[in-house]
Structures are given as C-alpha cells and as structure tokens.
Amino acid sequence: MMIEERIIAIRQELPPDVKLVAVSKFHPVEAIREAYAAGQRVFGENRPQEFFRKVQEVAAWKVHEVPRNEVEWHFIGHLQTNKLKLVLPYAQLVQSVDSQHLLDAIQDWGKANGRVVNVLLELHIGAEQTKTGFKEEEVLDILFRADKYKNVRFCGLMGMATHTDSEADIRADFARIADFRAYLQDLFPELTDFRELSIGMSGDWRIALDYGATIVRIGTAIFGERQY
Ligand SMILES: *Cc1c(COP(=O)(O)O)cnc(C)c1O
Q1: pLDDT band (50, 70, 90) for residue 65
Q2: Whose alpha carbon is nearest atom 14 of ligand 1?
Q3: pLDDT tens column, 171-203
Q4: pTM
Q5: Euclidean distance between the first and the last CA atom of the chain, given in angstroms as a whole number
Q6: Does 201 sit in the ligand 1 pocket, CB within 6 Å?
Q7: Which atom of ligand 1 is nearest to the CA of 202?
C-alpha cells in the first residue's frame, strides 16, 4: 500500500476527535509530501535537527500548495536543553517532556521569548528501564506547582506501552495512564487544558482507542520501516 492509502485506511478507523500524528522521523520530506496529499496535517519528529530541517523544508513549499501554518508539528523525542531553539519556536506541542530540568528550561525559554509552550508530560508506563518519562509522584509534584510555570501550558499525558506481544500487558499500561489522567483531572480541575492522552503507536493504536486516546502517534504503519 502507498502512504496515502495507509493514511486513509487508518483515518477510517479513528474516531473523528482523535488526532493522528504521522511520525515521519527518519523518512524523507517527500514522504511528508505524500502524506500531505492524503490530507494529513500533523507530523511528529523525535530528533531536534531533523525536526528543524523538515519544518524549514515544508515551510518552503509554495504557499499556494501549503497555506501558511497549516501543517502542525509535534516533537516526540528526547529534548536536550541546548536544542530548545531548534524545536520550541515551531512545535505546536512538545509531547515528550520527561524531566524537571527540561520543564524548567522550557519555562525559561517561554518567558524569555514571550511564548506559552504546549506540553505533555511523559509518564513512564512501559516495563523497559530504558524508556524515559516521569513517575506518577513526579507528575503530581509538578502539577501541584503548575501555577509557577506561567509560560507552559500543561495539555495532558503521553506514554509508550511496553514493547511486547502480550496484549494484556499493553492494556495494563494503557489502563494505568488513562486512570492517572482521570485522577489528575479530578484533582486539578483548574487545569482546563489538561485533556490529552497521547497513547498508541503502529502496533497498539487500536488498543489505545479503548482507553480514551485523544492522540495516536503512528510512524511505521504509515511510512513503512525506518532506515536507521
Ligand atoms: C517513533 C515513535 C512513534 C511511532 O512509532 P511506530 O511504531 O513507528 O508507529 C511514536 N511515538 C514515539 C514517542 C516515537 O518515538
């Protein structure tokens, strides 16, 4: 199947209010163009330099082809604080805030640049120790101090389930993050933007829908295998 067909097929299964982020990392900008032709407007990248380069290339498309600001970029990877300027001016959502240090740096950048940065807090839900993300108590600690982060908008949680063939394990991971989001929404009703639940990738997005995913991040099932 072609990129266009794959996107159309996924869209048909997604509820209309679930945002599809096409994860174009490691794929050329021509692949983004094909996805764009299929109506896809939201793209995710996980490396700052590649993110920056693709944002510039897509922005250089002729304006009659791509009206200004129509493409939405999400950053979904590990972000070092010395790379913020490659990402924050262009990202509509930083999905992968995974440390206090990064959050503080984003706040400082937002203040210095007169911007409010939309973020998701990444919750560590998978079994792998190598995966990044906060523990539940760390997220709580941050949100209790949310009003200190005047230049950060807390939009919800992101998580990656355990990489496994066991559907039961994946369901347990998604249930945990979905329950935690509900708990946080009860605890912090003043955080009215805290709505998003970004769960589900190529292998598990259908399962993620059962747990109330509002954003799915799909790479391989749209663009094919990545060439590292
Ligand atoms: C690469 C990546 C994805 C997409 O993974 P696929 O399995 O190719 O769909 C989703 N989320 C994050 C955080 C990623 O790094």
Answers
A1: low
A2: 76
A3: 999 999 999 999 999 999 999 999 999 999 999
A4: 0.96
A5: 22
A6: yes
A7: 9
182 membership: H or E segment, kind and range? helix 167-187
Looking up tokens 């600690």 gives 141
Closest CA to ligand 1's atom 13: 76
Q: What is the CATH code for 3-223?
A: 3.20.20.10
Cβ of residue 218 lying under 6 Å from some atom of ligand 1: yes
Residue 191 burial by Cβ neighbours in a 10 Å radius (0-12, 13-18, 19+): middle
Q: How far apart are CA 137 and CA 119, in angstroms?
A: 18
Ligand 1 near 124 CB (within 6 A): no
Contacts of 55 (CB under 8 A, 6+ apart): 73, 90
In the chain, what are the domain boundaries? 3-223
Select from 72, 154, 148 the least CA-distant residue to 111.
148
What spacing in Å lies between the alpha carbon of 184 and ligand 1's midpoint?
Answer: 25
